[in-house]
From TrEMBL:
The keyword Protease does not apply. It comes from the Bacteria. InterPro entries: ATPase_Atu1862_pred (IPR014588), HerA-like (IPR008571), HerA_central (IPR002789), P-loop_NTPase (IPR027417). This is ATP-binding protein. The keyword Protease does not apply.
């Protein structure tokens, strides 16, 4: 299922989009000098995709904490928690699919690298059943994946570089899609940058950075000069999620702002030199020294236990952008979405995690919330939809669902198909139909599955002399018609 977001406009005014589904599989690298609009681009991507994918932002400057109020992100002030608490928070984030911002601006650079590494490793080490797709945005990535040794210890540098390498090289199979941004490609470790398949290159001036950017964009060296001439907020994009050929894009507007101080031109006040001298020196000796005031502090940190509970509760809140939607019963829409998914030929062959992600995206696009529906419950609901029972509230299925209560989720769909045939008096499904419902191409596997059902007393199979099969559900006393010839 395609999920495009508009990030800006091309030279002719046509919208330029990023396909989020493709991005989750191919990762993104953003490069641009300070002042090129790199953070503005990241903010645009985060705002436009907030409603369709979980987001985890590694924020070394605290620029993205303003996303919290309008989009429901949880801000984690890293300076307020221990290493063990950071790990537990990351594990809870994976479990409950909360969108968060890890604000590192209260830490020194070495502590930032260590904290980010512990956090990323905990996300990476989540159990397989929690490998839901998530966008992991790392701003100033050259700090966490430096190309060469710097002022930090070798132990911290290796720890941070290893975590970033895992994110970009092995994170895709665990649902973690890296989006990294750097001021200079030359300062970013090559094995981290090389794993990105999508690129958005902004203004840069050094020859080595222009040459690397041109190589990544598939441009000739003599064309690299145009990267130096890009205006603020203008980027060259390339990649399967953006465009198959380099495309120029002017990044669109954003809803939130940064906490950084504005650098707009402001002339100093006109004050006579003698008066200004007096203002600076009057009473200087008697005035006690005071530390400089911190600029725009983060919200007051909360205890780790409280934040863990807050992350848990996000699983039961409305998705971003839905608080203004009319409150209506979501069940008919959920049933409709499940029925649509069940009709897609390849749906039974997809993994439960991919199906659940597809389902949640469709729900968000329909502006509905599904509190309490985790991946286990979703698998049972989807199995019902495959059997034509998308609505669990239909009283016709009550007895069948009671019998099926003990059937594991991965075996539920073929059992419900057999039970529905018996309930409706319809012909018994053939091996090919059951194989598709079960998500396999092996008829032998289906025969073993039916034998297993019989041994458990769930069904009784009978085959007549012509080879036509019927199925009986003994607990319901119902029997299907004979299988079609």
């Amino acid at each position: 299922m395609s999920a495009p977001i508009v990030i800006g406009a091309g030279p002719t005014g046509t919208p330029v989009t990023i396909d989020m589904e493709e991005l989750l599989a191919t990762r993104l690298l953003v490069q641009g000098n300070s002042g090129s609009g790199k953070s503005h681009l990241l903010r645009r991507v985060l705002e436009e995709s907030a409603a369709i994918v979980q987001q985890v932002v590694i924020d070394p400057e605290g620029d993205f904490v303003t996303l919290a109020e309008p989009f429901g992100h949880i801000v984690i002030d890293a300076a307020a928690y221990s290493s063990a608490e950071i790990g537990r928070l990351a594990a809870r984030i994976r479990e409950h699919r909360a969108s968060v911002i890890l604000a590192l601006d209260g830490l020194e650079i070495e502590a930032q690298m260590r904290c980010a590494a512990l956090f990323l490793n905990a996300l990476f080490d989540a159990p397989r059943e929690q490998w839901y797709p998530a966008l992991v945005v790392v701003d100033e990535a050259q700090m966490f994946a430096p190309a060469a040794a710097g002022d930090v210890s070798d132990e911290v540098r290796r720890l941070s570089l290893s975590a970033m390498t895992n994110l970009m090289c092995r994170g895709r199979k665990r649902g973690l899609a890296g989006v990294i941004a750097t001021q200079r490609l030359a300062k970013l470790a090559k094995n981290v940058a090389a794993e990105a398949s999508n690129f958005l290159m902004g203004r840069t001036f050094l020859d080595i950075d222009m040459a690397r950017a041109a190589d990544l964009l598939g441009m000739e060296r003599r064309q690299a000069e145009q990267i130096r001439d890009l205006e603020r907020g203008h980027f060259l994009g390339l990649g399967p999620a953006i465009s198959r050929r380099p495309v120029a894009v002017r990044i669109g507007s954003v809803q939130t702002g940064t906490r950084a101080i504005s650098h707009a031109f402001a002339p100093p006040p006109v004050t006579p030199a003698d008066d200004l001298f007096a203002l600076l020196h009057d009473g200087l000796e008697a005035e006690p020294a005071s530390p400089s005031a911190p600029a725009l502090p983060l919200p007051k940190p909360v205890a780790a236990e409280v934040l863990l509970d807050q992350i848990t509760l996000t699983a039961e809140t409305a998705p971003v952008g839905e608080h203004d939607a009319p409150r209506e019963d979501p069940e008919p829409i959920i049933a409709e979405i499940l029925a649509q998914m069940a009709e897609e030929p390849d749906a039974p062959f997809q993994s439960p995690a991919d199906l659940f992600q597809d389902f949640t995206v469709r729900c968000r696009m329909r502006r509905i919330m599904v509190p309490g529906l985790d991946v286990t419950r979703f698998r049972r609901r989807f199995a019902m939809a495959l059997a034509g029972m998308a609505d669990p509230g239909d009283e016709r299925w009550a007895d069948v669902l009671q019998v099926a209560h003990a059937v594991p989720e991965d075996l539920l769909a073929p059992f419900l198909v057999l039970a529905r045939a018996a309930m409706d008096g319809a012909p018994c499904p053939d091996d090919e139909t059951l194989a598709r419902i079960y998500g396999t191409h092996s008829s032998g596997r289906i025969r073993r599955l039916l034998d297993n059902f019989e041994r458990q007393g769930l069904i009784v199979m009978r085959t007549d002399f012509s080879g036509r099969r019927t199925v009986t559900i003994p607990q319901l006393g119902l029997t299907s018609a004979a299988e079609d010839a």
